[in-house]
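Weekly structure sync, notes
Attendees: PL (lead), two postdocs, one rotation student
Agenda item 3: pending single-chain targets
PL asked that the sequence for the first pending target be pasted directly into the notes so everyone works from the same version. It is reproduced below exactly as submitted, 250 residues in total.
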Amino acid sequence: MLAITRRNAIKDQLMERKSVTITDLAQKLNVTKETIRRDLRLMEEHGELIRTHGGAYILDGVQNDIDINMRQVIKTQEKTTIAEKCSALIQPGDSIFLDGSTTCWFVAQRLLGQNLTVLTNSLQIATILSQSPSIQLISIGGRFAPSNLCFIGDNTCRALSNYFVDKAFLSCRSISRTHGITDISEDYAAIHRLVVERSNKSYLVVDNSKLDNTSFAYTCPLTSVDAVICDAPWSEPWQEYFRAHNIAFY
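Predicted structure, written out during the meeting:
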């Protein structure tokens, strides 16, 4: 297979799936992993994708749902920074909600040993926190979403409606000063709308790549949340927006 043909095939896979692994591409295209690595390096230099350990991804598309295995290993430093900011806001005795985002996985890892009640629809977070006897863990079920290792759907929302929490930490796919908070599907948007309504304080956690973008499903206006937490310093336009709408920012 010619190199240009192979790279076009990689582009097609990325457009369809939004993320790819080196192993999978090597098998599909019947070439070595090193050949795929060279292709991905060249394509990244041309701005066609973003490489990560073991593969690559793109951010295009309002319904871009990057596979969970890929999201676990991308932007880990950014998520660590956000988790540090979140953990500083959590006090002993709090009841909190953590959603199924990989950013909240990083938050959960900082809570082990604390005296908290944690409500979550994330299978991974429930697994992490099950190691801590000081945490009262409430796992919310529903329809399992294997691409995100969490539970979604009407049954999840019905179960969540039985609870109120002191603080909710939730992520999303995009935020915009014009279009508010948006996500990849109505299932995730519905859970986040409900959680915002049933928390005394809601914290939106986003890395800088999610700013000034719009995704498929509308969740709620940014003014619905109490604070927004990001890994990077906020630009002046964002700071002005937050101050004008009485939204805390970290």
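Discussion points:
- Residues 183 and 217 are 5 Å apart (CA to CA).
- The longest strand covers residues 199-206.
Action: rotation student to compare against the earlier draft before next sync.
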